[in-house]
Amino acid sequence: MCRKMAAPALSGRTGSAGSLGNSGVGPELDFRSAARMEDLNRLIQEFSKHDQREYDDQRALEIHTAKDFIFSMLGMVQKLDQKLPVANEYLLLSGGVREGVVDMDLDELSVYARGTDYDMDFTLLVPALKLHDRNQPVTLDMRHSALGHSWLSLRLFDEGTINKWKDCCTIVDHISGTTNYFFSPTLVADWFYQSISLVLLEVQKKPQRGMPRVEKVERNGTIISVILGVGSSRMLYDIVPVVSFKGWPAVAQSWLMENHFWDGKITEEEVISGFYLVPACSYKGRKENEWRLSFARSEVQLKKCISSSLMQAYQACKAIIIKLLSRPKAISPYHLRSIMLWACDRLPANYLAQDDFSAHFLLGLIDDLQHCLVNKMCPNYFIPQCNMLEHLSDETAMLHARKLSSVRSDPAEHLRTTIEHAKAANRLTVELQWRGSSNNLPSPQSDAGGENQPDDRLAKKLQQLVTENPGKSISVFINPDDVTRPHFRIDDKFF
Fold first, then answer.
1. Where are the bilayer-spanning segments (predicted)?
2. Which of 240, 257, 374, 473 is most buried per CB count within 10 Å?
3. How far apart are CA 335 and CA 342, in angstroms?
4. 471: helix, coil or strand?
């Protein structure tokens, strides 16, 4: 039953699917728009070229300098009141929260634009609590929550942890006279923002040569957004306090029983190694108590099994819908990511592996998204019984479906517009870099001396990693008592 509900596409869809060959009858056309598939493929390739930035040694070193600054800052936050675990495992994702790398509420986020506000964006999941000694499956308290969400009682933790985090809990007195402390996402975000702000204030009182410029620190709902300037680069970090679990939640146990596109490509142990609770509420839930289940760690693994042509189509489609469906807020890039994962389960692997089928995939994603809107049905990939569009009004759903219909009628024109946006963002970045260099802005290479001088070999290695792993996610292990050594992993490679 879950499988039928989980397939958002029409079983007899026409138009975008095309055929594996055109039987010698001329160029292959999209039935709906009459666009030539080869023209759409060329436009998608052009978008990818402008969307994926090339990093030279200088830029790679600036990325590394900003990352080290963020980790050092979090080490100082831990030392403020010892709330954060001493040895912590962060998940660093390429792309900010606005890019849909995690399922958060976009209506609470400030609008930042690449080129105008930042050059590169990252999401950093920082565990405030860890439950890593539990046997799977993990049972959560979902009695008060919408599907896919949970409250978290500190009864699962020891007395020391409860005393440490009491001030970030809501208190519920039971009829038996016992007191239950529920870990509050809003109170945790309050504490996290105040702690980061305090640490950054102290750091800026004693600036060191080569230290990044803190250009912006903002609280966006339960997310802390930090924009750092390093040399001529500006990096946006969306820092998200989370609860980290090893194992797998009981509510998603039935999903493991189904057949999936990643079967045989990666092991089940890699896919179900852990999950998170992120500070995001359902539309009817209590913001001060409700967390959302996130499978970001699993998604990093699944991404390795998705063909480059499908990923290019996904990135192009995401760029189109972010601009087109921004008002009123209803669809996020995370919805599109879920649709792509369902498509991978539904379609044959040899079809999805076609190098020159990006146009087919783009049109198919648009068709699927429109179908989801018309039916107000977008199942979560890991919890299929959870409909992520259930809250939408009929009016909003149909408004966005009509907007997508206009894209479907002329996909080439919307791709050209998206390409122009990417070009404009790149031009802005280059102009700001030129202004920065002409104003002699400090860079970590030029003004850091002595023991603070970054290791040039590391910069070259990092530049090579970035070039060889475009768009991949980086998992980082850091000990806040020793921030001198980098410990990072790009997918399954350790450095």
1. none
2. 240
3. 11
4. coil
The structure's pTM equals 0.82
The 10 Å Cβ neighbour count of residue 257 is 7
**Looking at the DSSP assignment, which residues form a beta bridge with residue 274?**
246
Nearest to 130 by CA among 88, 68, 162: 88
SS3 48: helix
Looking up tokens 């598939």 gives: 37
Residues 6 or more apart in contact with residue 469 via CB below 8 angstroms:
490, 491, 493
Name the token pair of 219: 């609280």
Best CA proximity match to 370, nearest among 344, 404, 336, 341: 404
d(CA 265, CA 373): 32
78, 199 contact by CB (below 8 A): no
Token reading at 456: 């040039």
Element (H, E) at 436: helix 411-438
The average confidence (pLDDT) of the chain is 83
Residues 6+ apart with CB under 8 A from 24: none
Q: What are phi and psi for residue 114, nearest 5 degrees?
A: -65, 135
Distance, CA of 407 to CA of 154 (rounded, Å) = 48
Spatial separation of the C-alpha atoms in residues 166 and 154, rounded to whole Å: 9
Q: What is the pLDDT of residues 379-400, one digit of tens each?
A: 999 999 999 999 999 999 999 9
Length of the chain counted residue by residue: 495
CATH number of 37-431: 3.30.460.90
What tokens does 67 get?
A: 């990352």
227-249: pLDDT as tens digits: 999 988 899 999 999 999 998 99
Q: What whole-number distance in Å separates Cα of residue 214 and Cα of residue 224?
A: 13
Give the up-direction half-sphere exposure of residue 494: CA atoms within 13 A in the CB hemisphere.
2
Question: What's the rounded Cα separation, in Å, for the pair 96 and 80?
Answer: 27
21: left (phi over 0), alpha (psi -120 to 50) or beta: beta
